[in-house]
Write a structure and sequence with these properties.
Helix content is 70%, strand content 3%. With 260 residues, the chain is mainly alpha-helical. The chain folds into 2 domains: 3-104; 110-258, Up-down Bundle (Four Helix Bundle (Hemerythrin (Met), subunit A)), CATH 1.20.120. Helix 7 (133-147) packs antiparallel against helix 8 (151-174), helix 8 crosses helix 9 and helix 8 (151-174) packs parallel to helix 12 (233-252).
Length: 260
């Protein structure tokens, strides 16, 4: 079990908490009780559950802290006067924040998306050295925005990360970073960089590139303008998927795009 697996399971617990016959004291979420109840449902005998709890507790403590960091949980009892325990205060007891309640009532599609840095980093790590730190930074921020349900910002960061990809490829093709950056900063800079990269590529590569990039560009521009936008979780989710697919496409066709 990795951090994302534990986080997904913990989110399921938050939406449908079941402490079974175990006490939860003054906490809304008491991890040992939740896990022991979960083990029973999985057919694990009580005598084996303690060893299992000992083995997986570190990753669940990390998951609890991750949800605290995202503002969904907070350590401590639900309200003043509730029973508190040293064990709960040591990392086993949590309560849901007001933001967390709103977050849990919203779409649950992100429970099954690689929204944690650990898994997302695994997917994109091999592209960081090729596309640069700017790409990686924006991609990480995009995934964090999605996890926080900040969908407009997610689309903006996905579009910016995509531009980092084509910018790095155009620099590699032209072998003149200063000149390429100058063109990028000029009027219609994004279009100019795209033309450098795919303007003379074969039609199939041009069509494939547009298939991955068109919606990314549209939603980035739509999200970054001041007018009301209808961008929600579906658009942000698709932006993340297209960003990953664009990275794979440029990487897989690097020689054809850059060296011809």
């Amino acid at each position: 079990m990795i951090l994302e697996d534990a986080t997904k399971l913990l989110i399921e617990f938050l939406r449908n908490p079941d402490h079974g016959s175990f006490g939860k004291y003054g906490y809304e979420i008491y991890l040992p009780a939740l896990l022991r109840t979960y083990f029973r449902k999985q057919g694990i005998q009580d005598q084996d559950a303690e060893q299992k709890l000992y083995e997986i507790s570190p990753i669940f403590y990390a998951a609890g802290w991750e949800l605290c960091r995202r503002g969904i949980l907070r350590p401590g009892i639900k309200r003043y006067g509730e029973q508190a325990t040293a064990d709960g205060g040591a990392g086993n007891g949590y309560s849901i924040t007001p933001f967390g309640r709103t977050w849990l009532q919203e779409s649950n599609s992100d429970d099954f998306v690689p929204t944690e840095p650990e898994r997302f980093g695994e997917i994109l790590a091999k592209y960081k050295s090729k596309f640069g730190a700017g790409f990686h930074e924006r991609a990480q921020q995009a995934i964090r925005c999605y996890g926080a349900h900040v969908y407009l910002a997610c689309c903006v960061m996905c579009g910016a990360s995509a531009e980092s990809i084509i910018l790095s490829a155009a620099i590699a093709k032209e072998k003149n970073e200063t000149e390429v950056l100058k063109k990028y900063r000029s009027a219609n800079g994004r279009h100019t960089i795209e033309n450098i990269l795919i303007g003379k590529a074969r039609k199939q590569l041009q069509d494939d590139y547009r298939a991955y990039s068109t919606l990314l560009k549209y939603w980035r521009d739509e999200a970054s303008h001041g007018r009301t936008s209808k961008i929600e979780d579906n658009e942000a989710y698709t932006s993340l998927a297209l960003l990953l697919r664009l990275a794979m496409f440029i990487n897989d066709n690097w020689d054809d795009l850059v060296n011809t």
